[in-house]
Amino acid sequence: MARIGYARVSTTDQDLHSQLDRLRSEGCEIVRSEKVSGASREGRTELATVIEFLRQGDELLVTRLDRLGRDTRDVLNIVHECQQRGAFVTILDPHVSTRGEMGHVILTVLGMVAQMERRFIKERQREGIERAKAAGLYKGGKTRIDISRVRSLYQEGSRPTAIAKAIGCSRMQVYRILKSMR
């Protein structure tokens, strides 16, 4: 029986250390992490690896439910997949586990709250952008990729895959930047 931790933050500039420390202090022998949005399961390769690795009696631990996902259906599907493998899911804050029947009910409610919270965040963000646009202050989202570095690496002969790896972004983002250069 293994305790396997999963940590996630939404953006590359967020820090994983507190989650990783907490999961290790809870006795996780293996901890996988990634920096990707929890809005859907798309692109969450570490989570997929963890689920595939789970065996009968193993336990998947996350610090908070929203680290597992922000969509109720995704969270419930993840829990179901873990159960299909004979494993349990434990949320550390608040402490909830699928070992007992009540844990499933609580996880469902918490998943709904996480999804609702995501909707509220997006609504507040949209309202803020609209106000900033009306005031002439909106300049678009923060640039997270150094476009000049992409250009220089490409001009030096690097291929898009190598550029994406060097910069820490997806190949699609590199292709979009290169397309805008033409």
List its traits.
182 residues, 2 domains, Rossmann fold, five-stranded mixed β-sheet, alpha/beta
Describe the protein.
Keywords: DNA integration, DNA recombination, DNA-binding. Residues 2-136 form the Resolvase/invertase-type recombinase catalytic domain. This protein is of the alpha/beta class and 182 residues long. The chain folds into two domains: 3-114, Resolvase, N-terminal catalytic domain (Rossmann fold, 3-Layer(aba) Sandwich), CATH 3.40.50.1390; 147-181. 53% of the residues lie in helices and 13% in strands. It is built from eight helices and five strands. The chain has helices spanning 17-25, 45-53, 65-68, 72-84, 101-134, 147-155, 160-167, 171-181, and strands at residues 3-9, 30-35, 59-62, 88-91, 96-97. The chain has a five-stranded mixed β-sheet with strand order 2-1-3-4-5, with helices on both faces. Helix 1 links the parallel strand 1 (3-9) and strand 2. Helix 6 packs antiparallel against helix 7 (160-167) and helix 6 (147-155) crosses helix 8. The longest helix has 34 residues, at 101-134. The model has no long low-confidence stretch (mean pLDDT 90).
